[in-house]
């Protein structure tokens, strides 16, 4: 059935409006990052700056240790991502395939963890981590991020596992494949889109997290990027808008790179799944 031209034009207009809606904040941020202090102070709403002031990027990199904080964020995010994916895969498979009381307990834990206010546990969490000497350490932050990201990642991944027909695994078993061979050669390739989606979610969640890092990290050399960007706000409320915008632009780049790399694997996994399904 052919789409009418009027409908097609309307679809393109809606798509263009959606792109503008999503892209405008990033465009404004990039514009603010190259504006001078006087232009920003004038609250000029023009997206195109009157002159390019690249000094904001120099100031952002030289002050507050932004480069070191970016490395810390990258370490914490990558380790959290690997741990979340590695722990979620077997748990999600068990949750999706094996019925019983354990599944009920697991589902209940996931749902409760999603509605539980984090603010209520921050002090007990701080005291526990201090007892085991993990306060003000990147490893402690990795453990916290892994713990709090896993419930949603597990819920998301078990949905992908449940979507894989059990008939495929039964056919592999009839052909003589062991459980491990079935998981490695059949289930794992079909599950690749879910694994990639879980990895992207875990990385972005850890990369953008601010509250736990603000409370648990105290030394400037261990600051993550969100905490380092907060330092551009002075004690009297004075904000260095230009360097802050430049730092925010720089902080956005790694997330876009990781998304671009993993997005290719996501597409490849979908194609693999369609062939083998």
TrEMBL record:
SUPFAM superfamilies: MetI-like. The chain crosses the membrane at residues 12-30, 74-95, 107-129, 141-165, 186-219, 239-262. The keyword Protease does not apply. CDD domains: TM_PBP2. Residues 70-262 form the ABC transmembrane type-1 domain. Its main location: membrane. It is a multi-pass membrane protein. GO terms for cellular component: plasma membrane. Keywords: Cell membrane, Membrane, Sugar transport, Transmembrane, Transmembrane helix, Transport. The keyword Transmembrane helix applies. InterPro entries: BP-dep_ABC_trans_perm, MetI-like, MetI-like_sf. It is found in: Cell membrane. One of its GO terms (biological process) is transmembrane transport. PROSITE patterns: ABC_TM1. Belongs to the binding-protein-dependent transport system permease family. This is Carbohydrate ABC transporter membrane protein 2 (CUT1 family). The lineage of its organism: Bacteria, Bacillati, Actinomycetota, Actinomycetes, Micrococcales.
């Amino acid at each position: 059935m052919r789409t009418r031209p009027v409908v097609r034009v309307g679809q393109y207009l809606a798509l263009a409006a959606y792109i503008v809606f999503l892209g405008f904040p990033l465009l404004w941020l990039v514009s603010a990052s190259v504006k001078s202090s006087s232009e920003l102070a004038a609250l000029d709403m023009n997206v195109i700056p009157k002159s390019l002031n690249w000094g904001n990027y120099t100031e952002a990199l030289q002050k507050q240790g932004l480069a070191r904080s970016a490395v810390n964020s990258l370490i914490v995010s990558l380790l959290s991502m690997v741990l979340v994916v590695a722990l979620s895969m077997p748990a999600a498979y068990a949750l999706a395939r094996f019925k019983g009381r354990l599944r009920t307990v697991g589902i209940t834990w996931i749902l409760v963890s999603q509605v539980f206010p984090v603010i209520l546990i921050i002090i007990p969490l701080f005291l526990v981590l201090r007892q085991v000497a993990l306060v003000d350490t990147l490893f402690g932050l990795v453990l916290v991020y892994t713990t709090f990201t896993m419930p949603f990642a597990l819920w998301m991944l078990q949905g992908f596992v449940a979507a894989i027909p059990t008939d495929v695994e039964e056919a592999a078993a009839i052909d003589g494949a062991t459980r491990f061979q079935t998981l490695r050669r059949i289930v794992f390739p079909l599950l690749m889109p879910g694994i990639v989606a879980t990895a992207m979610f875990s990385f972005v969640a850890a990369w953008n997290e601010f509250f736990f890092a603000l409370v648990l990290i105290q030394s400037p050399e261990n600051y993550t990027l969100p905490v380092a960007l907060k330092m551009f706000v002075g004690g009297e409320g004075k904000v260095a808008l230009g360097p802050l915008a430049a730092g925010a632009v720089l902080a956005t780049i790694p997330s876009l790179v990781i998304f671009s790399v993993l997005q290719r694997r996501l597409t490849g996994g979908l194609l693999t799944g369609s062939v083998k399904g």
